[in-house]
Amino acid sequence: MGMIVKRPGILALLQDAGRRGVMHYGLANGGVMDRHAWAWANHLLGNSWGAPAIEVALGGLVLEVKACTAIAVCGADLSLQLNGEPLPLWRVHRVEPGDELSFGHPRQGMRAYLAVSGGFQVSPSLGQSCATVMREGTGGLQGNGQRLQAGDILPFVAQSPSDTLLARRVPDRWIPDYQADLTLDVVLGAQVDAFPAEALAQFFDQSWTVSTSSDRMGARLEGGAIKGLSQRMISEGIGLGAIQVPADGQPIILLNDRQTVGGYPKLGAVTPRALDLLAQCQFGRPVSFVPTALHDAQRQERQFLNFFASTLSM
Q: Residues in domain Carboxyltransferase (predicted)?
């Protein structure tokens, strides 16, 4: 059986590592916004890289369990409860038929990731991923890009977890503090010369806030407007984390469900590891940026992938 959605909440989506090699078709990569939390939830359970999980944004999701399994929830503190009792995050738990999992209001962070042992058994869309991209109508439970709805059944293979599995938890040093001051690493891009030195200094020296108009396509920043030497350019492909600066001078960090091409100048890109933290930044929170070297960003990404691709125990 699996789990039945009793209440879908604000925004609950089936997500995985996303699609690769599809941007030339005009399709977004999609996938989880916070790979750190998602990867830990699957790793705790011994799931393979890319296993689908539920991305719960801002809470409200209620699920009824219909079969025995082990779960792990990592990421934002959304007041998670099991049968009305608080359930700790970042560790493995056993659930039984008839149990109810509920996500309440955010206490810290924005998105939590619910994984089950063996992963949710969902057919991939476009042959490779179940990542839900609502704007494009791709992925998800039905393959049509729809968010989770009341009555949806999320299938998994029932199993009784071992005591060894149930003892697993994430070491404290790897659990982020989503309320800490947020400073994100940025790799300067090929178009950095499109911005005068004063504009770059302003971008890195000031504190920005994350706008309530942000979504899975892009995080919109609010602060003192910065001006580049050129307001428009020939449209080109857009990478994950690219910081484009439109005519109003308010930067937009392009995220998983971004459009594939754009014509605004881009001063650089937020690194993949920093994007995990940005995904948990609540609206109105201050955020600042610091330049970093490309090789440092690549080293961090290699370490991340090497760890979660391994089958070694913690």
A: 24-305
For domain 2-172, the CATH architecture is Sandwich (2.60)
Which parts of the chain fold into alpha helices (H)? 35-44, 163-166, 197-205, 272-278, 294-309
114 forms beta bridges with 54, 73
Q: How far apart are CA 117 and CA 288, in angstroms?
A: 37
Burial class (CB in 10 A: 0-12, 13-18, 19+), 306: exposed
- Mean pLDDT computed over 72-92: 98
Closest among 55, 56, 67, 50 to 4, alpha carbons compared: 67
Question: In this structure, which long-range contacts are made by residues 18-24, counting pairs with CB atoms below 8 Å and at least 24 apart in sequence?
Answer: 18/129, 18/131, 18/256, 19/126, 19/128, 19/129, 19/131, 20/128, 22/126, 23/237, 23/260
Give the three-state DSSP class for 219.
strand
The domain ranges of the chain are: 2-172, 182-309
Beta strands 182-188 and 266-270 are antiparallel
- Whose structure tokens read 């009784």? 160
State the residue for tokens 């809470």: 59
Closest CA to 144 of 167, 164, 118, 123: 123
Q: Tell me which residue of 149, 151, 129, 148 sits closest to 139, measured CA to CA.
A: 129
Of residues 294, 265, 269, 270, the one with CA closest to residue 195:
265
**Domain 182-309: CATH architecture, name and number where available:** Beta Barrel (2.40)
Sorted by sequence, the CB contacts under 8 Å of residue 55 that are 6+ apart come out as 12, 13, 14, 15, 32, 33, 38, 111, 112, 113
Calculate what percentage of the chain has a pLDDT beyond 90: 85
pLDDT score, position 196: 92
